[in-house]
Amino acid sequence: MEMPAPDVKIMAMKAKLVERLQSVLPFEAVIHDEVQTRAYECDALTAYKCPPLCAVLPASTEEVAAVLKICFEEGVPVVPRGSGTSLAGGALPTADCVILGVAKLNDVLETNYDDRYIRVQSGRTNLSVTGAVEENDFFYAPDPSSQLACAIAGNIAMNSGGAHCLKYGVTTNNLLGVTMVQMDGTIVEIGGAHLDSGGYDLLGLTCGSEGQMGVVTEATLRILRKPEGARPVLMGFDDNEVAGACVADIIKAGVLPVAIEFMDRPVIRATEAFAGAGYPDCEALLIVEVEGSPGEIDEQLGKIMEIARRHNPVELRESTSAEESAKIWLGRKSAFGAMGQINDYMCLDGTIPVSELPYVLKRIGELSKQYGLDVGNVFHAGDGNMHPLILFDANKEGDLELCEAMGADILRLCVEVGGCLTGEHGVGIEKRDLMFDQFAPEDMEAQMKVKDVFDPKWLLNPAKVFPLSVTETRRAG
Amino acid sequence: MMTPDSEAALAEAVAGAKGPLRIQGGGTRPIGQAEGEVLSTTGLSGIELYEPGALTLVAKAGTPVAVIEAALAKENQRLPFEPMDHRALLGSKGEPTIGGVVATNASGPRRIQAGACRDSLIGVRYVDGQGTVIKNGGRVMKNVTGYDLVKLMAGSHGTLGVMSEVGFKVLPGIEATATLVLNGLDVTRAVEAMSMALGSPFEISAAAHFPETGQTTLRLEGFEASVTYRMTQLRALLDGFGDMEELHGDASRDLWAATRDVTHFAGTDGDLWRISVKPSDAPDVVKQLPDGAKLSLDWGGGLIWAVVPEGADIRAALGGIAGHATCLRGSAPTFHPEPAALAMISNGLRAQFDPRGILNTGLMG
């Protein structure tokens, strides 16, 4: 993956830059030692690494503004970083950039149960937002798999989803307001505890902009009362197509489960070996979860199982207790770990129209044979958000490149059938060069014009999202 | 008036425009003033794709809302956000279009549960101010590929581009509906009751209050048995709020259709305002409104409709309360003034999307 060559002029002024940053931050909040900066050399896309010029850890919105103002004046690129869990390389540094980490910004600023929102600093982890309100039986709905570690700042930057977004939506549907610092140090408030915008929807525009429009330091998030209960049913099928048809029938029947998760045979086998969740050895497995009171759950699961029976499942197992529910979810939740035990893997994130599921799974199987790399599929079936896991050996010469080429083919396939490159992980550097496959040049130009407004000098996370060839003149300033 | 019958013709019309254009769908939402030759999208009509099993629908922007709702109803599905019909309230005529719904981000009582129009919108195609066709988003419900211009277009009132096609995530239809009506509460107590209900696990899909009748209304939707169960639970929860009654079936549906369209303020005189605040600020807002104001609350108190004496400066009256106020009828500027830094961004976006300044010129600043 190509990154822009570092600017030698910026590299040469490191000492001056560090001195200026130290004048607005506590001494220990400016990390410039070459050993220590290596802690920031990559995110969860570990195949790519590059230590930044330095890293800063501001502890307030004002400190963030002071840092950005200095970098703006000096013309230094800034890469914002939440917890560094991006699978797309969203927080990958360049050698001439300042990493701006929000890890010290992790306070809860306000909880309001009457109006059902919480205001937090953006470095707070996703799960600890729910942690702050769960004693009152509330929760924050978006639940990316990395929720134990990932920061709200990164969730907003990537518009993160999760297993339960079929019912509750993704980050943008649960975000009410932000405090954001622009590249020149201007602090803006967008949205708030009220609903919708009086003018343009700048909140919706900035959510998912991958740290390219500003650095979010505080967020107002919608919180919801926990449902009375939730219970899954597990169903196994001997055909992917039948499982896909079952998903469509469940949705058409008017039941809206909170989650419909899909696993194929390679993933089922891997998770069985790893976690022993007691899954049947079959072609396709669905986990469908519904919420409500015990009576409501019975009624919904009854309807769902009736539909499933029409598709001749090889296994149909309704959870009747918390233990059984946990066991059903165990395999799904350990799927990535299980695949990781077999080999290195690359996790893709394309979304497809649900109707194209059987065709896309068949084509992925063919690509797997063609490239000689194994693939497992585990994904959110209700919304068509695929997560093919391509297995490869990072220590084998050329295997990463082969895997990337196959990944690109799968993502092109997703676009071809009417879907998109990324459903919840973001473009980052990983899908950057595939943007031409989804967008015409004028579509991308329209997006880049938005960045021109927020960050005219293209200093904020400049080498991400758009192919380098189309941003070159803009990045040159 | 220009009524192009294809996206290409629409693009040509914009590219060739010599002066300002007034962008119009069905013309049923006359919100704010824009001068210029009318450019109508009604020539772009028809559902392009509808996959009930994938909960997605894509239609040309000029498609009548009624056509879309009929197609959805046939498959027992619906638009999640319950779009408002402005005709009764604004005394307008014509056929509302889906593009007009998106341009105004028109969202009804269910907004508090299912989100606004912008939350269900998954894709757009539009013609920018120079006549270039742009697409953003698509036909899948989870998509973070590139910037979310879909949200930006929702509620941009035709000032950033003329939409030619819009795509939605839709939801299954509703088997049963019922409304719990609390009688005789003042605004403060009504907001308390609504907050308590909305903070319960019983999935309230709408909550409104009408000071004139003293009625507070709470809606439950879902499978029959579930609605019955939750009604019992809700009554127990709100036991301390006094007199209550229930509405079921059509009586409940009719009440919420009227609430959605604000028909109780149809044919009124005076300025008409739509105010968005956090629900617990609603009693303060009500106190600040001038004598003679008529008002109603939706969204659990977060949305306040107010009819006030002509010329009353509502934004000044709301001074310290966070939120925004839109003037749908009256001499005040239509849209809430933005703080300087945000106004700069909005102006910048307009200059990028419509450098000649010809799309609904001056409507949003």
UniProtKB/TrEMBL annotation, chain A:
Q: State the Gene Ontology terms under molecular function.
A: FAD binding; oxidoreductase activity
Species name: Litoreibacter meonggei
- For the keyword Oxidoreductase, the answer is yes
Q: What is the lineage of its organism?
A: Bacteria, Pseudomonadati, Pseudomonadota, Alphaproteobacteria, Rhodobacterales
Q: Where is the FAD-binding PCMH-type domain?
A: 48-226
Q: Which Pfam families match?
A: FAD-oxidase_C (PF02913), FAD_binding_4 (PF01565)
Cite the entry's keywords alphabetically.
FAD, Flavoprotein, Oxidoreductase
List the protein's name: Glycolate oxidase
Q: Please give the cofactor(s) recorded in the UniProt entry for this protein.
A: FAD
Q: Superkingdom of the source?
A: Bacteria
UniProtKB/TrEMBL annotation, chain B:
Listed Pfam families = FAD_binding_4
The Gene Ontology terms for molecular function here are: catalytic activity; FAD binding
For this UniProt record, the keywords arranged alphabetically read as follows: FAD, Flavoprotein
Domain FAD-binding PCMH-type positions: 1-173
PROSITE patterns the UniProt entry points to: FAD_PCMH
Keyword S-adenosyl-L-methionine set for record: no
The keyword Flavoprotein is assigned to this record = yes
Q: Which PANTHER family match?
A: D-LACTATE DEHYDROGENASE (PTHR11748), GLYCOLATE OXIDASE SUBUNIT GLCE (PTHR11748:SF103)
- Its protein name is Glycolate oxidase FAD binding subunit
